[in-house]
Amino acid sequence: MSGEQQGQDGAAALAEIFDQATGHHAAGRPAEAEALYRRILVAVPRQPDTLYLLGTLAYQTGHLDAAADLARQAIGAKADAPAFYVLLGNVLHDQRQLEGAATCFRRALTLDAGSVGGHLGLANVLQDQDRVAEAVTEYRQALALNAGDANIHNNLGGALLRLDQPEAALACFDRAMTLSPGRADPIYNRANALRALGRSTEAEDAYRQALALNPAHRDATLNLANLLLADGRAAAAEALCRQVLARAPDHVDALMNLGVALHGQGRVAAAEEALNQARALAPRRADVLNNLGLVLAASRRRDEAVALYRQALALRPDLADAACNLAAALAGQDDAAGARAHAEQALRLRPDDAKAHLAMGNALEAAGDFAGALARALEAVRRAPTLATAHGNAALMLSHLGRPAEALAHFDRAAALPDATPEILWNRSLARLLAGDFAAGWMEYERRWDTDLMKAARRTYSQPRWRGQRAETGRSTLLLHAEQGMGDVLQFCRYAPLAAERGHAVVLEVYRPLLRLLHSLPGVAEGRVRLVATGDPLPPFDLHCPLMSLPLAFGTTLDTVPAATPYLAADPTDLSRWRDAVAAGGPGLKIGLAWAGNPKTSVPDRRRSIDPTLLAPLADVPGVRLFSLQKEGAAPAGLSLTDLMGGAADFADTAALISQLDLVISVDTAVAHLAGALGRPVWLLNRFDTDWRWLLGRDDSPWYPTLRQFRQTSPGDWQDPIARACDALARWVQSA
Q1: Is residue 346 within 8 Å of 370, Cβ to Cβ?
Q2: What is the distance between the alpha carbons of residues 682 and 666, in angstroms, rounded to a whole number?
Q3: Could you tell me the residue range of the domain that residue 696 belongs to?
Q4: Total domain count, the chain
Q5: Segment 4-8 mean pLDDT
Q6: Three-state DSSP class for 451?
């Protein structure tokens, strides 16, 4: 046999081996294919097609370094084959060498402008470089060459979705599903497009279809969890996140979404733990920091939350959610200017986003511009009519503006939506109480215990809650426990003797600074009401009730408010001591002043408190002497004022001082409640967005017969009510 014949036979044998190798390759038998490719390369080490196919096999089996080396060898053997550059480009893309990948795809297109793989690969790289519009152009060129490729339709849809073209993206995904039925990815992407279009029910169905085809599809699982969270189904979202974490315990997105889901169920400590795990794994993930900030804000750790929002924005200045949350947190800290700056940032980033408009509304509310805040809330309603928070904020502003009927209409719309929060329902109860609808208001006021503000204070006793019933045979012990502020205890302790009249031995738990004063409450001296300070051991009891649930237990209406005063009194020994101190101030009508509340309360203190320099006109009324009732915060030097509060150790001392005065003029703080409970004349300087208990359209109070209101006529304007109080005071002096 001649050498030529031997060569022909050898080539034929190699060709047969090559056909066998490609057959194994196509049939999904990589080990057999690789062995045969390597036999060919032993005989012909630089055979370009074999190098290319072996490189393709290495790429398909995840051996990227080997694939890159083989693709380069193939190019070295044959530099004008476009497919070889496409292979190397795909490998470099997967290795995140984006510029090198783009160079390869462009080289392939230079060699063959009709290379589908070149256009598709370049488009994929451009997407990852955030050059999405250019990627769309490349995808369209690839489709012009091969309209039947499902992958190209699918990837084009993804790019269009990023360009906020969900309708066009949906058409691409539908086409991909038609061309390649039974694949999970196009169905998953279709779900994303449906969600972007607001078609949540269809999106949920699509996510579940994708998961039926591929139960391990993490993105589908997590995006379905996000959809459920937005729909208020936090427990179901939690279960999905835990499915992912069972397979990948360190999956940052799953941990983050788990934290959000736990937060949505009120499990704040567990939410913080999950988010801290995510933060430890990805300390520079801005979205993790932002969500952790939300949890800390719910725990009243505002300073920490603000710091986290700032960190998130430093890492990602384009994260509008963090800007919105920072604006809300700063508004809650009474930093109206800071809140506005970050709300403006959110609006620049997402001018059409309802939440950005709500952030600006929060900032305007903090500045006392309720009309402006209402306009922003209504704009949010227009942009997101199914967003409960938008209706809730509009309702709250309408309530602040003294328009309760309109407020309740928006509260009702918010309450009917799936994302209605306990805060919205509690605020609706306050609007009902403000409007005088005590029957419905007291009932819904119980939702306070579900809010972030109050849930940590909820008592979880095993003993049943008292609902107002009379004691059955045998005397039962009823615990009435303090909640919220000092003024709230002073207002609602009046119910303790009434509970005792229903046959119960009452244990009244109160804050320690009130303990000595409340010994004067009817029933205490007789032993029907026993006092205990908050934090001290409680005696055994059979029933319990929070103090501010007592109006519900008694079915209190506007006509049945137990308004008999005084129900508290100063101790005679204290009276004697304070009588001498007040008398030393000289003659004249003795007026006590309180101008500030507790800045740590949930209501922005600046709205109810007064700059004491504004009270100076009261000192100019002839025949009066002013006394400070302000425990903290010195009066300005220019205000003629006697300050004896350094000698007041508790509220019993303050009660004795008030009892020596002719009148108390106070903002909405515990001093006003104390004066009313003592039956002393008290003038309330009341803010425009009045608290529910002072009602609307009246200058008296059903709770305190001796109280008279001087209300702001516009938000933030104290000069008018102070001027009216000065006129009334002058007339009193003249008639005295």
Answers
A1: no
A2: 7
A3: 572-735
A4: 4
A5: 53
A6: coil
Close Cβ partners of 133 (under 8 Å, ≥ 6 residues apart): 163
Contact 578, 657 (CB under 8 A): yes
Beta bridge partners of 592: 627, 664
Which two three-digit tokens encode residue 377?
């809330």
Domain membership flag for residue 337: yes
Q: Judge whether 254 and 246 are in contact, CB under 8 Å.
A: no
Does 471 map to a domain?
A: no
Per-residue pLDDT band for 1 (boundaries 50, 70, 90) equals: very low
**pLDDT (0 to 100) of residue 604:** 59
The band of 378, judged by pLDDT with boundaries at 50, 70 and 90, is: very high
φ and ψ of 13, to 5 deg: -65, -45
Question: Which pLDDT score, from 0 to 100, does residue 154 have?
Answer: 94
Sole residue written with tokens 């986290």:
308
Residue type, 629: L
37's enclosing H/E stretch is helix 30-43
Give 527-536 pLDDT, tens digit per residue: 999 999 999 9
Residue 31: exposed, middle, or buried by beta-carbon count in 10 A (0-12, 13-18, 19+)? exposed
**Same domain flag for 297 and 326:** yes
Coil/strand/helix, residue 20? helix
CB contact burial 665-677 (16+ within 10 A = b; e otherwise) = bbbbbbbbbbbbb
b/e burial code for range 625-652 (CB count within 10 A of at least 16 → b):
bbbbbbbeeebeeebebbebbeebeebb
pTM of the prediction? 0.78
For the domain that residue 685 is a member of, what is the CATH number?
A: 3.40.50.2000
Give rounded-to-5 percent helix, strand, coil for the chain. Answer: 60, 5, 30
Q: Which residue among 168, 183, 212 closes a domain?
A: 212
Residue 218 lies in a domain: no
Distance CA 704, CA 686 (A): 15
